[in-house]
From TrEMBL:
GO terms for cellular component: membrane. Residues 622-641 are annotated as: Disordered. It comes from the Bacteria. Keywords: Membrane, Transmembrane, Transmembrane helix. This is Putative membrane protein YccC. The keyword Transmembrane helix applies. It holds the Pfam family FUSC_2. It comes from Streptomyces nymphaeiformis. It is found in: Membrane.
């Protein structure tokens, strides 16, 4: 993709306003906390302290909107505490330019590394640096810096207390994640009725798994209906695929296919009913038609062999889903079985370890940390040198828009400039024409904050309009920045955005050259999954084998990492370097088909104690060797070969094993890998 087209696409993405469900109650709660903090601080301590505490309350409320499964009060306290520390250090060093610049470099570098702990930590850390740049310009002394820091933390405490005292749809995010997973299964079942090999996106199941991990305190209060249904949904998926697939399930036409379609439709209705019940905390209401279809006694007469076993298992799993989704009183045993999530104190060493792991030359996170620290320092120096005053608008814009990847950085730069242009123009016009006093400015700041909370998830440009206006009104409340014009603020914001965009062009971390590595990771993971599944036929341990489950989770993570890499690489102005867009699509299809065949084999795993199949051990070993060597060859840009697996499949063509799925599965797996070879070979020749 050319630079011109890349800039056009990212600009369009940044200025897009999405239609999302608004949450006015949550936005009103955040604005109420901000209003309480500002009002009390103004009455007791004056405008300067009120502005500091307002930034703390504002940022704490923003933290509660981030996509995280931790308790919202915890996020508010963590945001308020970290911002208090940042601002206190900024106050202490603010009078000494060299010392403050050194602090800014160090603090921004650490905020860049914080992305190793996830986007929530990265966003909070970046916001702390941005707000520190503003608050240290407020008139104060080192003697009162601690008091300002305490008030900033108090703003976080107020927001945390309001989340506890005024709960809005408690456990709503976790309910939505689990309901979305069940709804995705329902949609999958419906698509299988018309396309027996329809693909399935594992992201909803991965999101539900992430949401299911709770802290010890959460485990004591989690609703019982949030237990168990996620695991059942994951076990249902291979059964649905096995029932629909013509290779191991029912024929493409005839009475068996009609019966399979009827069962798939009934399963979709039941899963949708369970999703609705979990989302709203209501009893499950099952459609009578779906119940009748699942209880039809002639299923055993129509379906034979593996399809009959799949239909029987599907009915049992759906019954378990319905029972699990019913709201009921939670027992201590259920709470003890919850997936654990470390507390913030126990999380600290894990975050530090993740940050240390990124201190390597090829790390995109390290490159981001270097870029953002250098750009913020340069923006601060240029803003101070230019004759505009209040030069923090430039570094503040840079640190807020910069992300580890190209597309987000450029999209947010354009969105921030557009939002700032509108927000600053309107707010400055109000301040310079109406000259609102301290309290009217505070009211206008709270109104802007409410609008920002309300529209935060509709697009960065829309939210940034009100953030810019909020800063103008809050500084107007103190009497700061009243002489700065719209032109000066917009030019400084444009400068910060341009520095951010230029830094990525000069010191990039392109995803495109790493696509082969991501593909190799996926190949190795899905190959290990297929090998583990096949080995279970030689040593039966039941369908719920822990090693099979662990291998499946690694496969999903590798597949999602590949998809995210492809999405980022799509908008990069970089030549494909040996992996064209056509090769990406064909290789993805090949590995997805490979994983689907392995999933079908998992759906028919023998029960614990079933007679072993020694031939399966041979297939498992050939799969392991072939995919491990193939992954290495993909990374090294060589043509992958699958000799071990081909020898096994060829030997079985004369004397197939005593299990139809092993013989069929080996052939289908080899065909998928050969398609991968074709994709990579064609890409290398075209490149």
């Amino acid at each position: 993709m050319s630079w011109f087209r890349a800039l056009k696409e990212t600009a369009r993405s940044g200025l897009t306003v999405e239609r999302r469900r608004l949450e006015p109650a949550v936005a009103a709660r955040g604005a109420l906390g901000l209003a309480l903090v500002v009002g009390v601080s103004l009455a007791l301590f004056g405008p300067a302290v009120a502005a500091s505490s307002a930034f703390g309350a504002f940022q704490a409320a923003v933290a509660t909107f981030q996509r995280s499964w931790r308790p919202r009060p915890t996020l508010a306290l963590a945001s308020g505490g970290s911002l208090a520390v940042s601002t206190f250090l900024g106050y202490v060093t603010g009078a000494h330019d060299a010392l403050f610049l050194a602090l800014l470099l160090c603090w921004t570098f650490l905020s860049g590394l914080a992305w190793a702990a996830g986007p929530t930590a990265g966003i909070i850390a970046s916001s702390n640096v941005a707000i520190m740049l503003v608050t240290v310009t407020l008139p104060t002394s080192v003697a009162t810096a601690a008091g300002h820091a305490v008030m900033i933390f108090a703003g976080g405490v107020v927001q945390a207390a309001l989340v506890v005292l005024l709960p809005v749809r408690r456990w709503g995010a976790q309910r939505d994640a689990l309901a979305d997973a069940l709804a995705a299964e329902a949609d999958y079942a419906r698509r299988l009725r018309h396309d027996p090999v329809a693909p399935f996106d594992p992201v909803p199941l991965m999101t539900a798994r992430s949401a299911a991990a709770v802290t010890p305190r959460q485990a004591r209060t989690r609703p019982a209906e949030l237990h168990g249904a996620r695991g059942l949904a994951e076990r249902i998926r291979p059964v649905l695929a096995s029932l629909a697939d013509p290779a191991v399930g029912v024929p493409t036409e005839g009475a068996q296919r009609d019966r399979a379609r009827e069962l798939l439709g009934a399963a979709a209705d039941v899963l949708d009913a369970a999703a609705h019940a979990i989302r709203h905390g209501e009893p499950v209401v099952l459609p009578p038609a779906a119940l009748a279809a699942l209880r039809t006694p002639d299923t055993g007469a129509i379906l034979k062999g593996p399809p009959r076993r799949a239909a029987s298992r599907l009915a049992a799993l759906l019954g378990d889903v319905v029972e699990t989704a019913e709201p009921r009183t939670e027992t201590s045993t259920e709470a003890a079985g919850a997936r654990s999530r470390p507390t913030l104190l126990r999380l600290a060493p894990l975050v530090l370890a993740a940050m240390r792991a990124e201190l390597r030359p090829d790390s995109p996170i390290l490159r981001h940390a270097v870029r953002v620290s250098a750009v913020t320092a340069a923006g601060y120096l240029l803003g101070t040198w230019l004759p505009f005053g209040h030069g923090y608008w430039a570094p503040m814009a840079s640190v807020m828009v910069m992300r580890p990847d190209f597309s987000q950085t450029y999209a947010r730069s354009v969105a921030r400039f557009g939002g700032t242009l509108v927000g600053v123009a309107l707010a400055t016009a109000v301040v310079q024409s109406a000259h609102p006093g301290t309290y009217p400015s505070a009211v206008l700041a709270v109104v802007c904050a409410f609008c920002m909370y309300l529209l935060m998830r509709t697009g960065y440009a829309a939210a940034q309009t009100f953030v810019s206006a909020y800063v103008v009104f809050l500084l107007g409340m103190v009497g700061e920045g009243l002489t700065q014009t719209v032109r000066e603020r917009v030019l400084l914001t444009l400068l910060g955005g341009l520095l951010a965009m230029l830094s990525y062009a000069v010191y990039p971390a392109w995803e495109t050259p790493r696509l082969r590595g991501r593909l190799a990771d996926w190949l190795a993971a899905v190959g290990a999954y297929a090998a583990v599944v096949t080995a279970r036929y030689a040593h039966p341990a039941g369908p719920a084998s822990p090693d099979v489950r662990e291998a499946l989770l690694k496969t999903r993570e590798a597949r999602v990492a590949w998809r995210e890499a492809v999405e980022r690489a799509t908008h990069e102005p970089v030549r494909h370097r040996g992996l064209s867009h056509a090769a990406v699509e064909q290789a993805e299809h090949a590995l997805a088909e490979f994983g689907r065949v392995a999933m079908l084999m998992e759906a028919h795993l023998p029960e614990h104690g079933a007679p072993p199949l020694p031939e399966a051990a041979t297939l498992a070993e050939s799969l392991r060797r072939s995919t491990e060597r193939g992954a290495k060859e993909v990374r090294e840009r060589r043509e992958p070969h699958w000799d071990d697996l081909r020898e096994t499949a060829t030997a079985w063509s004369a004397e197939p094993p005593d299990h139809f799925l092993l013989h069929k599965g080996a052939t289908l797996l080899l065909e998928s890998l050969e398609e991968l070879t074709t994709a990579l070979t064609g890409s290398r020749r075209s490149g």
